[in-house]
Design goal:
With 665 residues, the chain is an alpha/beta fold. 32% of the residues lie in helices and 21% in strands. It has a seven-stranded mixed β-sheet, sandwiched between helices. Strands 7-6-8-11-12 form a five-stranded parallel β-sheet, with helices on both faces. Strands 21-22-24-25 form a four-stranded antiparallel β-sheet. Bound molecules: adenosine-5'-triphosphate and magnesium ion. ATP binds at residues 402-404, 426-431, 517, 533, 544. Keywords: Acetylation, ATP-binding, Ligase, Magnesium, Metal-binding, Nucleotide-binding.
Length: 665
């Protein structure tokens, strides 16, 4: 094949490699073949409420059945299954005691140091009941907010489930956040208790958690916190504040192993979770019990095609929505066995993911593009950590979430991790959407690298222009969802105006959910490709371009590991393209940097066209990322302009990198 053709293919939007589902996978899949998919879509089109009502009755156990599916009278404050009553923890645990799963392993816990332990459904039920009773003994009750600031652990999942059991609304704060970020979330949520650990283990090191809680609680405005409950993880030294602090094991000791679930209305807030802050100040996204749990369970069946013998592994932290839906709730609601991983992908070395898959015979593996890109870089440097060195034959399905996956990274994942046997589900969704929105179905959808393909049945995703009018396929625009769906956020905690204005803007008619991402649909297939955040659309001499296309072209170059593209004001072209690039090798400087930059500029011109040529290229050892691993282009925009950063950087992982990226090559 001529080189031009190959490189054209590598460019996300002109991708023409297609990977149909393997026949044996399709034959056993929950949704098998496109006809089955189309049939479900048609059912939703024809009778929207009937469709969702059927799924809700089939998928969840209701204490009191609902009589009305959807109420749109106070749009955009939609309600689902409102007069129904249920309990999320009952659906995740108690159901599994009577359906043959009681002695099935619910969680394989893989600790940082490689030690593995298992917990069955019966044991998890007992632990959650005891902990729920312990919370009640401290006066924590339905409607109270509880902040969870814990490491990846069975106890972390237990704490979330225990809150759900008693009807307390949890708000998990990722264990990498600072005291200041924790304080802000405690105040915003008005938390009555914080559940934490003495320390957490990450990459062989013990890092403080309780000390950070102490620091946060000592700051202004945290008076609402009456209890700090501490899980002993390492036994490291901590300060103990009498009357407020209590050890989890002491509190749980002697509690009854039975705890009648608190039956709550379907709209009862199950949790509040703050978004990553990639595009601005984090928002306290509020989710309801019934609709959220329905979609967590349903997408386990559809997107992950979960089967009784699967060993499911989602590598996300419980501090992110992915860890909520695809660790704490989804897998348990369908009675699956899953791996909960405490460690980091690079300890003791960058082969840890592959080693762990082989060790526990994981069948479904779900991770983020940022992890894949960094492991490509690592296995380039050291062949001993290359996935091909491990026995990954147990895998049958792979997944990606968090950012667009560049076609080159997709191909690497497909070939080296999936051995060209496993479908890849590139799942587009958000904290706000509660679960998957646009994704291939592994037994139905022919996959195209870099495209999240088609919306799930019942999800009315579309692309519109700035006035809310549909745009034809092949033309980029704004991604919206035209109808409410059960697992959508209900509001921004304490800020309904921000919810309404931010997600249902008047400019689009006030009825469409605005995702905040740009997208384009393929002319022939109708497949969706996410082109980047709306804020990140570039306008160069009147040409509108998504950041994703240029970034994927850069990543398709053999030297490049990662790239982020932003615009900066330019007198002649309106906006000029500035690219921040991480190479697979060490960061170049001086003449060499200039020479590689020129090479990359020519490459992009050749791949996409001269209009997409970056005016400026800066090299770094890394890019500024949120603690969930997403590139923070909003900070790069400021750096590109040569200005000082005054924005919210509370969720930035690696502040030192900003200094390095200030200078142009
Ligand atoms: P904030 O809203 O505070 O800026 P955030 O949007 O990064 O933070 P999340 O809810 O964690 O917070 O991330 C959702 C976003 O992640 C989506 O809007 C999209 O930009 C991106 N994303 C997630 N999955 C995919 C995917 N498969 N393909 C493309 N983009 C994805
Ligand atoms: Mg967002």
């Amino acid at each position: 094949m001529a080189e031009t053709e190959t490189s054209q293919q590598q460019n996300g939007l002109q991708e023409n490699r297609v990977f149909p589902p393997p026949a044996d996978f399709a034959a056993q899949a929950a949704i098998s073949g496109m006809d089955a998919y189309n049939k479900l879509c048609a059912e939703a089109e024809k009778d929207y409420e009937g469709f969702w009502g059927r799924l809700a009755r089939e998928t969840l156990d209701w204490h009191k059945p609902f009589t009305k599916v959807l109420d749109e009278s106070n749009a955009p404050f939609y309600t689902w299954f409102e007069d129904g009553e249920l309990n999320a923890s009952y659906n995740c645990l108690d159901r599994n005691l009577t359906n043959g799963n009681a002695d099935k392993v619910a969680i394989i816990f893989e600790a940082d140091d490689g030690k593995a332990t298992t917990v069955t459904y019966r044991q998890l039920h007992e632990r959650v009941c005891k902990f729920a009773n312990a919370l009640k003994s401290r006066g924590i009750k339905k409607g109270d907010r509880v902040v969870i600031y814990m490491p990846m652990s069975v106890e972390g999942v237990t704490a979330m489930q225990a809150c759900a059991r008693i009807g307390a609304t949890h708000s998990v704060v990722f264990g990498g956040f600072s005291a200041k970020s924790l304080q802000e979330r405690i105040i915003d949520a008005g938390a009555v208790a914080v559940i934490t650990a003495d320390e957490q283990m990450r990459g062989g090191k013990a890092l403080p958690l309780k000390a950070i809680v102490d620091e946060a609680c000592a700051m202004e405005g945290c008076d609402s916190v009456r209890d700090v409950i501490i899980y002993k993880r390492t036994g490291g030294n901590i300060n103990f504040q009498q009357g407020r602090d209590i050890w989890m094991h002491e509190l749980v000791d002697g509690q009854s192993a039975e705890c009648e679930p608190e039956w709550v209305g379907a709209e009862h807030p199950l949790f509040i979770l703050y978004t990553s802050g990639s595009t601005g100040t984090p928002k306290g996204v509020q989710h309801a019990t019934g609709g959220y749990l329905l979609w967590a369970a349903q997408t386990m069946k559809w997107t992950f095609d979960i089967k009784p013998n699967d060993v499911f592994w989602c590598t996300a932290d419980i501090g992110w929505v992915t860890g909520h839906t695809y660790i704490t709730y989804g897998p348990l609601a369908v009675g699956a066995t899953q791996i909960v991983f405490e460690g980091i992908p690079t300890f003791p070395n960058a082969g840890r993911f592959w080693e762990t898959i082989a060790k526990h015979k994981a069948t479904i593996f779900y991770t983020a593009p940022t992890a894949i890109r960094s492991l490509i870089k690592a296995s380039n440097a050291d062949e001993n950590v290359h996935p091909k060195k491990f026995d990954l034959s147990s895998l049958r399905l792979l997944g990606s979430v968090g950012e667009p996956i560049n076609p080159e990274a997709w191909m690497w994942y497909y070939r080296n991790v999936g051995n060209e046997q496993c479908p890849i589900v590139d799942t587009f969704w958000q904290t706000e959407t509660g679960g998957h929105m646009i994704t291939p179905l592994p037994g139905a959808t022919p996959e195209v690298p870099g495209s999240c393909t088609l919306p799930l049945p019942g999800i009315m995703a579309a692309i519109v222009d700035e006035a809310g009018h549909d745009v034809p396929n092949g033309q980029g625009g704004i991604l919206v969802v035209k109808r409410p769906w059960p697992s959508m956020l209900r509001t921004i905690w304490g800020n309904p105006q921000r919810f309404k204005a931010g997600y249902f803007p008047e400019e689009l008619g006030g009825k469409y959910y605005l995702a905040g991402d740009g997208a384009i649909r393929n002319k022939d297939t109708g497949y969706f490709t996410i082109t980047g955040r709306i804020d990140d659309v570039l306008n160069v001499s009147g040409h509108r371009m998504g950041t994703m296309e240029i970034e994927s072209a850069l990543v398709a170059h053999e030297l490049v590991a990662e790239a982020a593209v932003v615009g900066k004001p330019d007198d002649t072209t309106g906006e000029a393209i500035c690219a921040f690039v991480v190479l697979k090798r060490a960061r170049p400087s001086g003449d060499e940097a200039k020479q590689i930059a020129q090479q990359l500029r020519n490459w992009v011109a050749h791949e996409i066209g001269p209009i997409a040529k970056p005016k400026e290229i800066r090299f770094g050892d890394n890019l500024p990322k949120t603690r969930s691993g997403k590139i923070m282009r909003r900070l790069l925009r400021v750096l590109a302009k040569g200005e000082t950063i005054t924005q919210d950087v509370s969720t930035l992982e690696n502040p030192a990198i900003l200094e390095q990226l200030k200078e142009s090559t």
